[in-house]
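1st attempt posting a full record on here, be nice pls
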Amino acid sequence: MSARNKIHKLLNDAGLRDREVYDLLDEYDDEQDTAQPAEQTIYRAGFHGSDIALGHYTTAAAARAHCEVQLSREYPPHVALLHDWIRDDDPHAPWELVATADGGPEEPTGYVVTPLLVKAAYDEEADA
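the predicted structure (as tokens):
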């Protein structure tokens, strides 16, 4: 039984009519919708200069892991890769994946993780 149905049963058992139950559930749902943050940062894993994303994640660590795995697939299993992430001091700047293969020089890979600010709702006034 879903949580919504359990609440419905409990409220019915308490003597509330169906309409009252659904009104309370709708009110609860509205409160949950408004409890979202106004904006949230997500992280886009991708390749520098490409419009195609590898994925979007709620943590930078997950986005970085995706890029690292993609890079590892480009090399044979016997190649030792060391990953490192660099970025400017700007907290909104993308992280760039650099790597060392088999003890060679550190080189850029083209993989980037970009923080994106996502709004929870459309703001018509901000769009004007």
